[in-house]
Amino acid sequence: MKKELFNAAHKIALLNLEGIFPKITAEIHQLFYNALLEVRSDVIDVLLGNKEVTVIEKITNNGNTSLHVAVRATRKSELLQKLLELTPKNTELLDLRNSDGSTLLHVAAIVGNTQAADILVGRNPELLFAKDNEGHIPLAIALSNML
Questions:
Q1: How many of the other CB atoms lie within 10 Å of CB of 104?
Q2: Which of 20, 45, 106, 132 could serve as a FRET partner for 124 with CA atoms 20 to 30 Å apart?
Q3: Cβ burial, residue 70 (10 Å; 0-12/13-18/19+)
Q4: How many Å apart are CA 73 and CA 111, to the nearest integer?
Q5: Residue 5: what pLDDT?
Q6: Which residue has the higher pLDDT, 32 or 18?
């Protein structure tokens, strides 16, 4: 009887979690996003260490990963380097795109983050030739921002 009660309670708990899981995930993504903006290494470390979120997971409504956010939000190359080290080995930086088709290098070009651009091109020179959804390469975006 105890086992049956446990199984029933477990099923009810799972059903309840299914309803709130998207809300919990969104809250974790928001917390992680804010920690990236504020460069709160303590919070970033806990969330990544507990596997609450990954560096390649899309954490914003427009499909930005934590790497996109870090490139946009800070000129502290240590944070980007740290996040890049946590990128799964089978992940190509070229494949990390947001809903606009922007790679990490596109974002660096948009915000003028030259330190991030140097790091990213050093890791994958093919990023220089990647086109976003509008057909723009990062260099064209950087040049248009200078005008």
A1: 31
A2: 45
A3: buried
A4: 9
A5: 42
A6: 32
List pLDDT tens digits, range 92-128: 999 999 999 999 999 999 999 999 999 999 999 999 9
pTM score, whole prediction: 0.82
Residue 147 exposed, middle or buried by CB count within 10 Å (0-12, 13-18, 19+): exposed
Which two tokens mark 36? 């990236």
DSSP secondary structure string, 63-114?
--BHHHHHHHH---HHHHHHHHHTS-TT--GGG---TT---HHHHHHHHT-H
pLDDT exceeds 90 at position 140: yes
Q: Which two tokens stand for residue 14?
A: 């799972």
Neighbours of 116 (CB within 10 A): 27
Which residue has tokens 């609450």? 52
In this predicted structure, what is the pLDDT of residue 9?
Answer: 44
The SS3 assignment for 59 reads coil
**Which domains, and CATH codes, for the chain?**
2-146 (1.25.40.20)
